[in-house]
């Protein structure tokens, strides 16, 4: 039996998975991400964990098809990270270094792109080869898959949907340095920001006014209870995200758009807002694009990383 | 010696090229596009022209690697046209029909995508594998190439850059039925429209007021003469197009953006307007994206069609 490793390197933990060649997840576990000293321990730690798991399972290098890595930074086609904020690395030839450390075949990709690949393989995008995934978490992550492959691009920065500009009048800065990025309105923090702005506009009664800690979850919980102000906020969010996705669909022509991240826990009610606005503005050829929720949760990264090897 | 045909089917003429396997264009010519009777004669006419050329050159089917077709309509990966406005066809299995007619291998793609492929192979995008091409003609056509291949998408409608929405306040309709499409501002007709709107705003002197037939060419000619009103119009055009391209670059991460079509005859002065605005709004990873003018003119289509075979 042949196996591969799917590994999702995050800023605080590294998620690790051992997969059979047919995609079955055999084992998964986590180790800590040690970012100190410019993150020099990260790849050696991952290598140790892999070797330990192999001896535990009685596997040799001959049984391993390779190791796939998802990394929270741009990653070029050659497996090079030009720079990274979260891990302490600067320029790093991840694929080459990891192949030298392990003596096994390695592929590396950006974590959001890799998660999209995972969702296409085993999750919300199953059965499709053209997909956009948008991850609504603290930020807005994106992954675009064309004909079964991630859009990596020249700098390894393909799929940065969260940093398309949706409001040229915005005066506050996004984390990326720009202004008016999709992330400023459609992430969990962005939705909270929309809610605060709306609540400050007037004094219309809303259960959101009783919330101690306003959040995207509180907004969608209130929507489900029919709260009018919350519905206004969700409508604005849906319009901004739906219109942005319509523009991306005109360029990428996906079969399906998968929505993931913490915000997606609100469930199918999201589509009432996002999909409706999408259809209003979509190019005619894209109007039947499907919407789906992500299904793999935190496992999307390890699954997609494995798929880098099993493609 | 092996050869292939690169064929660009337009609404009024079919451009045809015979290429050596190494990309050298050996011969090119045109035939009329007969769109009457639902365009039933088009593929048989092309077949006849191919057969005539082969006997003229003493070529047999064994010398021909295949026939590439560019078509002014969406074309799926399977070589199917779901529907077309210009040629009279409805649903048409172009690849299969053409293979039956000729007994040779056929590939088909959308004409704008195919032109982009041509520019990457032999024109303004040479040496790159990630490219956006935008063709500023009567409309705004687009082609996106990722890792050397056209973005075709689910419906064969990938790369429809001209129909991304750039102005949600627009009240006039685009030809596609939408409102606020890039095409309404950045095509030759779009630039003329911007110029008319600007001239109607006040009575500031401008050499454009003396033009009998206002056109994109007249606007850029006036820009070159330092006309202030024309510079304002060019600035607005550059902002709309540059900002739209910045958003597409965030998703596709191209190495180069190639500008083609009639408007591109204005030359490098275009970049002063488009590239400047692009850099203002581009995601940081995309700020060094190169800009280039298309180089192949009307031959981009036949070259790209040949490249569908020679890839």
Automatic annotation (TrEMBL), chains A, B:
GO molecular function per UniProt: glucokinase activity
ATP-binding listed as a keyword: yes
Enzyme Commission number, as recorded: 2.7.1.2
Matching InterPro entries: ATPase_NBD, ROK, ROK_cs, ROK_glcA
Taxonomic superkingdom: Bacteria
Keyword terms of this UniProt record: ATP-binding, Kinase, Nucleotide-binding, Transferase
Pfam families according to UniProt: ROK (PF00480)
The keyword Transferase belongs to this UniProt entry's keyword annotation: yes
Enzyme class: transferase
Family as reported in the entry's similarity comment: Belongs to the ROK (NagC/XylR) family.
NCBIfam families: ROK_glcA_fam
Protein name: Glucokinase
Source species of the chain: Bariatricus massiliensis
Organism classification: Bacteria, Bacillati, Bacillota, Clostridia, Lachnospirales
